[in-house]
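Bug #77: duplicate submission created two jobs. Keeping one. Sequence:
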Amino acid sequence: MAEFIKQSQHIEKQDTGNVKEIVTKALSDVRKDGIKAVRGLSEKFDKWNPESFRVSQEEIEQAVKKVPETFKQDTQYCQAQVRAFAQAQMESLSEFEKEIQPGTFLGQKLIPLSNVGAYVPGGRYPIVSSVQMSTIPPKVAGVERVIACSPARDGEGIHPGVLYAMHLAGVDEIYSLGGIQAIGTMAYGVEGIEPVDFIVGPGNAFVAEAKRQVFGKVGIDQIAGPSENLIIADEQADPVLVAADIWGQCEHDLNAVSILVTTSRKLAEDVQEEMNRQISTLETAEVAQGSWDRNGMIILVADKEEAVKVADEYAIEHVQVQAEDLDYYLAKLKNYGSLFLGEETTVTYGDKGIGTNHILPTGEAAKYTGGLWVGKFIKTVTYQRCTQEASSKLAPIIGNQCRYEGMAAHAVTADVRGKKFSKLNV
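Kept job's structure:
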């Protein structure tokens, strides 16, 4: 039976006020007052009220000049990886038409969405990687219009690195808008900014709540919670790498979740000792240590079968395996957002640009969904057509089903076809 060597303290999360009420009021204002409300909210929350929220070509060119050449090259590499993987996903999808019964043809079509809005957060860190994760897959899917919103930083507009990445990704319209007002603008549209059909991208509690409230008017990728990571490790794992991966997760913020599941008590002890050594030189130590104290766990299990069981129960966003028999874990693990096999890879690779998407299910949502992928931006629709012979054969069966359900008018639509086409084919 699993043993907790280090357990979460379950400290109450930081009070952010009545998020739901604040978001409801703000979205209502955007619907009612349009750009006036957007300007008021932007001024209130971001101290930002430019002449136009749309980023100009001149501003993009200035950003391109500001960022280092090495950053440009690295971003180009990461975006190429994300694009290549999205294209491979596209190749796995297909349209088809099949004759299910003689004369009955059923088909599937793949239709890209028309308008997608991406939210790129700009809080503690300029998350450049979120640009490629949220804007390149819809481009690969064939979406006609992809727009992006990101908050202004320090009253100077979007961070130049984020702006460069948006430009490189081929975003059609870029807006220096953050928070609730960005989600409201994309969902409802305001003066000069047409609404979108689908909104993607992570954000803080206010962004998550805004996405929840606009869902139905538009589609959304998911409601993102705090970042999560679970590491499965055995006695062969390197405690230096495991410790580094734990701290890499913890520095996200105080609510980040980090769990080590191990079959080795000695490894658990060695990892804790190595964590103490590494934290002493970590620039983000205060946040990382706070996160680990609040939400960190070390769980000792009997064997790899129990490790899989525990991991699937938690249904974590990222799962790393640093253990023997990687193929076993690949075959057996079911509930995760993205899986990182072997010590040679790490969540950081997935977060920043190995090619897979980092917008993933949290809060046990991995039990019923995967992460963002190119297919999210494509409507899989169906169609049907019949020959007269097939329709006359189908009509009495479907008519009987309708009458059993008490839907008389439905039955008539089948019956009249049965009469018409059976006569034509005597």
